[in-house]
Amino acid sequence: MRGMASEIVLQALESIEFSRALEKDQREKIANISTYVTFSEGATIFREGDASELVYLIMEGEVLLTTQVPGHGQVIILTLGPGQLLGWSSLFLPQKKTAGARTTQATKAVAINATQLLELCQANSQLGYVIMWRVAEIISNRLRAARNQLLDMFEPVSESD
Questions:
Q1: Contact of 59 with 108, CB cutoff 8 Å
Q2: Which of 9, 50, 99, 131 is most solvent-facing, going by the fewest CB within 10 Å?
Q3: In order of start, what are the domains of the chain with their CATH numbers?
Q4: What is the radius of gyration, based on Cα positions, of the chain?
Q5: 60/38 Cα distance (integer angstroms)
Q6: What backbone phi and psi angles, to 5 degrees, belong to 55?
Q7: Which among 50, 147, 45 has a CA at the least distance from the CA of 86?
Q8: Cis peptide, bond prior to residue 94, ω within 30 of zero
Q9: Edge-first strand listing for the sheet containing 107-113
């Protein structure tokens, strides 16, 4: 019999856009390598450069992605909320986080073991295709957002006469 945390994870995988289109048995396999986690407001989930095997799907709450910018300190690069993937860099060697992550409010998430997820993807090419396609879309969207933010930061200031 499944525990309450396992049921929460499976329900989350069924409702979150990232995983709901997967077949039931695929979601169950992912649930078996996942845990339900909670973070309090202001919690650091990980720091930029941390080595980690965990990828998160946010169920509730809000997470700020930050990066260290010389001369500016910690800069917020993106805000993530329910249904979004956090920590995608754990799916790729050397499994080091490309940004820091901090909650702005109590946050609930599904933590997935990235190494085991990659093993599932290698064993099932259909699952691997879907997962990696979704991750590629996420990376593309985040690069676009970062580019737009950079353009805003370096937009020339017009001088008034």
A1: yes
A2: 50
A3: 4-153 (2.60.120.10)
A4: 17
A5: 9
A6: -120, 145
A7: 45
A8: yes
A9: 34-39, 107-113, 54-60, 85-86
SS3 132: helix
pLDDT in tens, 86-121: 999 999 989 999 999 999 999 999 999 999 999 999
Full-model pTM: 0.86
* Vertex 61: Cα angle to 53 and 111 (nearest 5): 20
State the pairing for strand pair 34-39/100-103.
Answer: unpaired
Please tell me the distance from the alpha carbon of residue 61 to that of residue 108, in angstroms, as a whole number: 6
Tokens of 14: 């069924």
Q: Average model confidence (pLDDT) for the chain?
A: 89
Strands (DSSP E) contained in the chain are 34-39, 44-46, 54-60, 63-69, 73-80, 85-86, 100-103, 107-113
In order of 115, 124, 125, 129, the CA distances from 24 in angstroms are: 21, 14, 16, 16
